Amino acid sequence: MSAEKSIQEVMFVVEEAPEGGYIAKGVGVSIFTEADTLEELRRQIVDAVRCHYSGQSSSPRLVRLHHVKDEIIAA
C-alpha cells in the first residue's frame, strides 16, 4: 500500500509576458498558464491546479504566487 505525500502548497513564478499580459509557471510541477490581467491569471491558476490534481486524493491547500519583475535603469 503506497501513501501519497500530502501537498500543502504549490508555488508559481509570475512574470509579465513580452507580448503583454502575464504568465505563471509552477515550481516543481508541470503547470503553466497565462492571462491578460492579474485577476484573470489568479482564476486561471486555481483552475489549472484543480485540473492538474483532479482524481488524486491529495491536492494543495494553498497557492503561493511569486511575482518577478525585471527592471532596467540607466546607469
Secondary structure tally: strands: 4
Distance separating the two termini: 61 Å
- CATH T-level topology: TTHA1013/TTHA0281-like
Portion in helices: 10-25%
Number of domains: 1
β-strand amount: 25-35%
How are helices and strands ordered from N to C?
Answer: EEEHE
Return the average pLDDT rounded to an integer: 91
CATH architecture: 2-Layer Sandwich
Numbering strands along the chain, what is their spatial order in the largest sheet?
3-2-1-4
What does this protein structure show overall?
Helix content is 20%, strand content 33%. It is an alpha+beta fold and 75 residues long. The protein has one domain: TTHA1013/TTHA0281-like (2-Layer Sandwich), CATH 3.30.2390. It is elongated and about 50 Å long. The model has no long low-confidence stretch (mean pLDDT 91).
How would you summarize what this structure contains?
The chain is of the alpha+beta class and 75 residues long. The protein is 20% helix and 33% strand.
SSE inventory with pairings:
Elements: E1 9-16, E2 22-27, E3 32-35, H1 38-52, E4 62-68
